[in-house]
Amino acid sequence: MKATVYKSTGSWYTVKDETGKFWDARMKGVMKLDGITSTNPVAVGDTVEIESQADTDNSAIIDEIHPRNNYINRQSPRHKYQHHIVAANLDQSMLVATLKEPKTSQGFIDRFLVASEMYHVSPFIVFNKSDLYKAKEMTKYEQWKAMYEAVGYKVFLVSVEKKEGVEEVLELLKDKTTLISGHSGVGKSSFLNVVFPDINLKTQDISGWSGKGQHTTTFAEMYDLPPDRYRDGGRIIDTPGMREFGLVDIEKQEVSHYFPEMRDRLNNCQFNNCLHFNEPGCAIKEAVNNGEIHEDRYVSYCGIMESIEQKSY
Questions:
Q1: Which domains are assigned to the chain?
Q2: What is the pTM of this model?
């Protein structure tokens, strides 16, 4: 039977077959895993073949993984030089960010955007907790909104707590499989409780001493959008809150290709192997100096390049 993976706990998986029945599944012990080098060979969103076990009602064995349309990868939290597949077969990715309690860094946002670009997943950014923002945060929001929209990304300002601005985001979820990600404490679970009022996901306050969110989601999990409200269907994949978003499987030469404002200008560089630091005739540096590429985005680019240089491949 063909089925879709809805939850992974590392060794057991919750999968849903084409009739809508859920199964508790595990991987076949001798399953061939050619080319799979991630810490999790089966990811939420994967399409798999399962075989029911005769002695149980809802236990099954996964004996095949279908090719993925795409996936989003990150550095494994436990193994620095291995990667972890966050989710597979996505239509879009939604990053929930905050400018207060806790503050999301631009570096984190840009790494998430680069990861989405790498794997051909269309991203958008939702800034939550607008009800907490004072003039300083609103000024920063307007600056970042202008910067990201100029590059082509959609940016939204919401207060999940006050249910302000949420409807516009909900419209984007219809008929799509959406990965939702962000730091712990930015309000992902609160947002999902608005979408799925019957699930009542656990939420936690910000840790007072650190200003960082507490982890409330341990494993990635997918949910079907409620059919009474979203007749077009759609699914959301919730992910554990992330402290960092470590990029893997990326070479220095590739990084500029995942910044849309740089990608459009690469052919204008004097050298094909230009890394956009100190090379003569660099169209990227010229665009930064002319204000055509935002300086903060270039700083993010340099930060990513430095993090790649520090790795000993």
A1: 2-65 (2.40.50.140), 71-238 (3.40.50.300), 252-309 (1.10.40.50)
A2: 0.86
